[in-house]
Specification:
308 residues; mainly alpha; 2 domains; 80% helix; disordered N terminus
Length: 308
């Protein structure tokens, strides 16, 4: 293959990845709100898994919808807001993720995941996300003085922090778990997926339990019962973690987070935000425990692993 052909193939790959990422990003953004940002989970997973040489494709894939959003809403929020909103967030996250990937790789020499690195990247990127988004919000407020007096930038900062962090925990660990399972399987078929213990547990009881609890939270008029149903979503997370380690925590956390988000009826509902904060804390702690157990099992002598 000559140089020009290789160059064309590289650009073809870049544009293909950019298009795929842009499509997934638009879907995630459509389903997101201020205190539950699925875009954060998609963005972080791509930055952790995609080779650095393809990061320009991620920037391009996010720049297109960001520029479109800025252009369409500039008359309403002002030029300063549009300039701020047009900057793709992935570009601001790269200075956080790149040093982490270089100094503390996501996987150790044995191939075990470092959950500490994942959570550090999540927290760092979430902070950048909250600061940048609040600056964009402040630009809109300054350009429209007195138009939205009920909006507090300080309140939204914590909402953006929680939304980015929980949104990342909703998607990133699950994508990493699926990637790890796919890498360890030579031939992925429907039968192999169906015979997975994790898949069977999801279908047999985790999905019905999460769906039932979400229905109770939506159907009841009793605020105490609603909060109890929301907090009970932690039970499937813990059960899957016990049975399947950090993979179970990742998938269970995603189910619980989606079910919890589905119970929201108003934006910035304090009761729901409290439950989301508890869920984020529990997912983080359970991921740390599950990741440490998995690393110890990997590094244990063969005789010790056989005895488990």
């Amino acid at each position: 293959m000559n140089g020009s052909t290789a160059n064309r193939a590289t650009w073809t790959q870049q544009f293909a990845i950019a298009a795929a990422y842009a499509a997934c990003y638009e879907l995630a953004r459509y389903l997101s709100f201020s205190h539950w940002m699925l875009t954060a989970g998609l963005r972080l997973a791509c930055l952790l898994l995609v080779p650095v040489r393809f990061w320009p494709a991620l920037i391009l894939g996010e720049a297109l919808p960001a520029f479109e959003n800025a252009l369409l809403n500039e008359p309403q929020f002002g030029g300063a807001w549009a300039l701020s909103a047009a900057v793709p967030m992935v570009l601001l996250w790269i200075p956080v993720v790149r040093p982490l990937r270089q100094r503390w790789p996501l996987y150790d020499a044995s191939g075990s995941i470092r959950i500490g690195t994942l959570l550090t990247a999540t927290l760092g990127c979430t902070l950048v996300n909250a600061v940048a988004t609040c600056m964009t919000l402040e630009a809109a407020l300054l350009s429209n003085a007195g138009k939205w007096p009920e909006i507090s930038v300080g309140t939204y900062f914590w909402a953006y922090m929680l939304g980015g962090y929980l949104g990342a925990l909703t998607l990133t660990p699950t994508i990493l778990a699926l990637h790890a399972r796919a890498a360890s399987t030579t031939n992925i078929t429907f039968a192999s997926v169906w015979h997975s213990r994790l898949a069977r547990d999801l279908v047999a009881w985790a999905l019905p339990v999460c769906g039932g609890l979400a229905w109770v939270a939506l159907a009841t008029d009793d605020e105490l019962l609603r909060q109890l149903a929301r907090l009970a979503l932690l039970l499937p997370v813990f059960a899957l973690a016990v049975r399947h380690g950090w993979h179970g925590t990742a998938v269970g956390g995603m189910l619980a987070s989606v079910a919890l988000a589905a119970t929201g009826t108003t934006l910035l509902d304090p009761a729901m935000i409290r439950c989301q904060a508890v869920l984020a804390l529990c997912i983080s702690g359970t991921l740390l425990i599950g990741g440490r157990v998995a690393r110890h099992a990997t590094h244990a002598p063969p005789a010790a692993r056989a005895s488990r």
